Amino acid sequence: MRRNLLHLCTIIFVLGMIAPYNIMAQIIPPNSKPESSQKDTPKDGRPPESRPLPDFSTLEDTSKIVPPDTSKKSTGNPQEQAIIDSLKANSDLSAPVNYEAVDSIVYDVKSGVLFMYSQGSIKYDDLELKAERINIEIEKQNLHAEGVKNEEGELSGIPEFTQDGETYRANGLDYNFKSQKGLIYGGKIAQEEAFILAEKAKYQDDGSFHGTNGKYTACDLDHPHYYIRSKKIKLLDNDQIISGPLNIVVGDLPLPVVVPFAFLPNVGKGQKNGLIMPQYGNAGDRGYFLRNLGYYLGLNDYLSLTFDGDIYTRGGWRLGTTLDYKVRYKYSGNFNLELGLLRYNEPTDSDFRRSFSWRVRWTHNQPIDPTASLNASVNISSSSTFQREISFNTNDLFTNDLKSSVSFRKNFNNLPINFTFAADHSQDLNEGTMTINLPTFSLNLSRQMPFKNLDAPIFSPLKQFYFTYRMNGRNSIQNVPDSLVLDVLLQQVDTLTYFENEEDTALTVSPITDFISNGIQHNIAGGTNFKLFDLINIPLTFSYDERWYTETIRRDFDAEQNRVIETTVPGLARAYSYQAGLQASATFYGIYTPLWVNKRRGLKFRQQFNTSVGYTYRPDFASERFGFYDEVQTDSTRTKFQTYSRFANGIYGTPGQGESQSISFSLSSILAMKYKRLKQKKESEEDKENKGEDDNVVRTDLLKNISLSSAYNLAADSFQLSTFRLSARTSFLKNKINLTSNFTFDPYVFGSEAVEFPLDAGNARRLNKFLILEEGKLARLTNAGFSLNTTLRSKQKNARGKKSSAFDEEEYSQVLANYNQYYDFDIPWNIRLGYNFNYSKTSLAPANITSTVRISGDLNFTENWKVAVTTGLDLVDMEATTTSITITRPLHCWQFSFNWVPFGSRRSYSVVISARSSTLSALRLTKNEFWQDRFQTL
Fold this sequence. Notes:
By secondary structure, the chain is mostly beta strands. It is built from ten helices and 54 strands. The protein has a 29-stranded antiparallel beta sheet that branches. Strands 5-6-11-12-10-9 form a six-stranded antiparallel β-barrel. The protein has a two-stranded antiparallel ribbon with strand order 7-8. It is extended and about 125 Å long. Mean pLDDT is about 75; it is low at about 15-90, about 755-760 and about 800-805.
């Protein structure tokens, strides 16, 4: 860009040489001085000078272009002759040059100086120079630009050079075209979020700047709140900054930290490299630490690499690397790998502990073409140690399971088929087990209606006939201990030896085949629909499933060991199942007008009833004619036998045991009210949405939904009637308060009775006896729950300052990834209240009851002070839930934040004062205490 400054100055020099012949100039007598004015317009009232220069490339013979009387009046002045000779040179300008001055543009023929008065401006392509005064000495080839002091003594109209959105500002500017060097007084260079200030800077012919008493800051004030001060600073042409001795100054107070030399973060566009400043403190048994110490490396416009880590004085450490990549409209993502070693206490201590763990995270999004895409979301860890003890992210602390997925999806043009090929992973951090499905695939045929073109009314059910097809395949490694996943995945061993849980003292030995399963499933579903009396809608449905497995099981009784032995039988085997059903549903409406209501109000209640009755049939696939189930002796007396499925270990399950003829029924209702306003009033947008056909009629839902459902199995030999489920949902005060509830009722008795086996006598259980016949009660409540939620907020204030309406994809992604770190200062206050109640009683034991209140919100004490609070209360134990308080305050170019968990096992605090600029985001003052650092063992 500084080469472009040289180019613009050359344009100014050419402009000065041709000024007498291309602008309206005032010829100044030899012994007089140019008259200047600081008014916006000259006294004679003529308009400001503003016109484009001619295209110099068309001036092939410039010797003929001479004003009529100039040659006669020529005094032989070498300056005038130099001007005329200069017109013979061809220009290489590629765009018009526009120049203007609000007051006047004056050329002094005797001194050879061009003067531009009051808001002088010269534009060429994307380059622009502005200054209150611009003088050009043509013979000496010097350029001088400066500002002037106003009546208050403040300097205004200082030189400002802009190119491609980047700006240089200075109190004064001198430049010589011959030496291609210049001096800048009180210079200020602005590029993106950073600013470089210098009392005096020298511009070299190689495009570099050498400054004295330099300042580097992200504060946009002329007297910044903070800056990095250096007596000598050099800005190279490749945008690198080299500094001599420097230190940080905050509020004009220099901090007692001096660095002998430095390479400051480079400015300008493109990738940037720089050090990530760490946090420090004391972590109990792990010792003193440095956390998040790292380095950011911008490889190019598409790749960036970040290294960071933690180190503890007693041996623990964490090392992480993150690769971010993005090619717009093609693909984007990031890959993160972290390794960590925990070490507590000394090796000679009895409670010494040392463990190594790792974590891999990867996200990828790639639209290959309109019909195909590749997506990945991977989050996998060697154990829960990394989440609970090495990571200091609160979300990691409360994560109990990890999930991953990598998938390729393909649609076929002009075909109703899509194909997906994927691999997925799930990890239970509490149990320390992992499940990997590699690979999985699915082929789906969307709904097809082969007879949809039939027009005869008699064929209406056939016309609406449809079917779908779906095929799934999966190879799965299930519930493998974390440390043994690779052994099973690579099949390096035949058996696994492990502890089933932490409390076990004996090892468990299992064959590797117990953890591996695979298969293919086919599903065909279809149906049709017809109406009865144009009132009752009756859909008919059917479903057929077929499963293919590469092995089955066989169980035999071993008399010597007196137990059942299970063996695997290799070979392709198939199992199928099917079911069919129909359902009748209808909708009814009722309108009620209370007799006691004033007719002028027109109050009416409207109730909608949705009823449904269905029948589903499924045969008993355990019967001998299907061959899917066998019997095995379970004791040496040959009196006890057990039925089992040969596909019991199949990944897609086994056909159902027992015949089913289920009749299901449900009833739901919606209750609404409408009335007329007696007095017209100004309405809100929400009122307008609730209006009916009349502008003065208001409609509101009293009960958004209430439903009751159950089922009865005609083919079951016991417990034919299912439990009853009741749910309701409504809102109050124009949807300000929302209420949801659900209940489960059991119609059977729960108790004890004499049974065949004495050992089971006296044990309470669910009995095949209706409660209404035994105790005169309809049903017993087994589960209940309801929640009450509301959100209260003030009206949004007018936006402070003009906001851009352009959508920034990167900023949007950053907000989503760090949602809890962003607050809306345009909303003065916001409160979210919630109450949850749950009741469960499925046995004779006392009921399990939970009752909690949740409160969260934020408040602006002033225009810039924002306080956010999250808390709750357990009403059963009368204990507060996890509570956090966050205070945020923007300080112009700084940001203050305070986070505090005042009580509980996870009490902690964090105070951060950091620069708001992303360029100097590592410039921060921190003081914190994490809850993990207060424990010797976690």
